[in-house]
Amino acid sequence: MEKPTVALVYQAVQALYHDPDPAGKERASVWLGELQRSMYAWEMADQLLQLKQDVESCYFAAQTMKMKIQTSFFELPPETHIALRDSLLSHIQSLKDLSPIIVTQLALAIADLALQMASWKGCVHTLIEKYSNDVSSMTFLIEILTVLPEEVHSRSLRIGANRRTEIIEDLAYYSSTVVTLLMTCVEKSGSNEKMLIKVFRCLGSWFNLGVLDSNFMANNQLLMVLFQVLQRDETSTNLHEAASDCVCSALYAIENVDTHMPLALQLFQGVLTLETAYHMAVAREDLDKVLNYCRIFTELCETFLETTVKSPGQGMGDLRTLELLLICAGHPQYEVVEISFNFWYRLGENLYKTNDPALHGIFRPYIQRLLHGLARHCQLDPDHEGIPEDTDDFGEFRMRVSDLVKDVIFLVGSMECFSQVATFWKLGVRAGGAAARDCPYRSALHQH
Q1: Name one GO biological process term (predicted).
Q2: Per-residue pLDDT reduced to its tens digit, 94-110
């Protein structure tokens, strides 16, 4: 490929998005793909971003920059790295109001550059120092700080194990600074929903990397804000989902509970306060929020599973955690209880390994109530005719119930399941027999 002019590249981008002829679009796509693989892509992308002509050309350029840094960073001599960094930071600042997707692409490019550019020491500190006092820069600063931890384990980046370890240690060192910045953003923005969503996404990203200090987080106001948002009935769907994702990430990060005790206790107590909010979401028939709460309750149970089995009813082995999941099992939509299946599988596996009759006796009533709830969920509508399909969503749910029953049947005994089958049979006769003939408990009992 000969070096193209920026005008020719812009023309090709316009053809890609706006040419009414499909063949023209295809030719533009092939040519632009060839350009992206060439050395000229660096310069052309930089010039397009400087021109700032429209969303399409800037998006193509930002995406090209990201791709080149991810896959072809070796093409650039080390002496050009600082200029590239400064150029990208200038672009993201000047384009911050054009489109969120362009900001995200440039943020990814900057993050991937920081991870590969060993000479850029303390990149988090540099970015916070440079932009944290400028309110208009806060949006893209938080976006960079969100994608940076996410990119550490990216398979697209050619970084060795030693460099990755160095990066993680560096991010851990500055993690408390990031959390303090996020809390400052919340205080300055008040109840600005878009900013809260960005803050929770960023916090979740740092939890996922596993570098946040547990003692620092346990006493941080941001944790309280997180649960306040989840407790409020008026919280919007998008904000509720972001807060729920963040809590789930936090719970997953402390799975080794003994080494994160202060934070574990705060999260444990925080989640237990959400039961009333769950009931309110059920009353308002807000399925999105109901599913979010069930995800949080399930993650809580998964995180404290070993504690619950070792010391049921004591401290963070509090069996109210199981009560929360059984409350969810009572929701009329089977999609809700299905979220918790993996926990019940794991609980059954743990109890089977312990082979302790006294311990089994403690958990038996919970499994009995679970089976009763599942039996109701597996019932067919009274007006259903014929045998249900195994391949539709409901059929697959019933198959998963059957698998779960096989894993927990040892706790309750066959007679308990036979009583459930009897219930099915009666209901099946009333519904024309299909429910009884196709009861998912039958195959579980047969194998048992």
Answers
A1: protein import into nucleus
A2: 999 999 999 999 999 99
CA-wise closest residue to 146 among 203, 63, 230, 193: 203
Cα separation, 277 vs 268, whole angstroms: 16
The first and second tokens of residue 317, run together, are 């082995």
- This prediction's pTM: 0.88
Taking residues 16-28, what's their average pLDDT?
A: 93
Which positions ≥6 away from 153 have C-beta within 8 Å? 164
Question: b/e for 256-271, b at 16 or more Cβ within 10 A?
Answer: ebeebeebbebbbebb
pLDDT at 426 over 60: no
Average pLDDT over residues 144-155: 95
CB distance 387 to 438 below 8 Å: yes
Q: Please give the torsion angle defined by the CA atoms of residues 126, 130, 135 and 141, in that order, rounded to the nearest 10 degrees.
A: -30
Distance, in Å, from the CA atom of 134 to the CA atom of 346, rounded to the nearest integer, reads: 48
Q: What amino acid is encoded at 291 in this protein? A: L
Q: At what angle do helices 393-412 and 440-447 cross, to 10 degrees?
A: 40
The total of other beta-carbon atoms located within 10 Å of residue 54's CB is 15
DSSP string, 301-359: HHHTHHHHHHSTTSGGG-THHHHHHHHHHTSSSHHHHHTTHHHHHHHHHHHHHH--HHH
Integer angstrom CA distances of residue 212 from 177, 220, 252:
10, 11, 13
- 108 token code pair: 């990814």
Max CA distance (Å), the chain: 80
What tokens appear for 286 in the block?
Answer: 């807000």
Distance, CA of 294 to CA of 336 (rounded, Å): 7
Amino acid type, 436: A
On whether the CB atoms of residues 324 and 275 are closer than 8 A, the answer is: yes
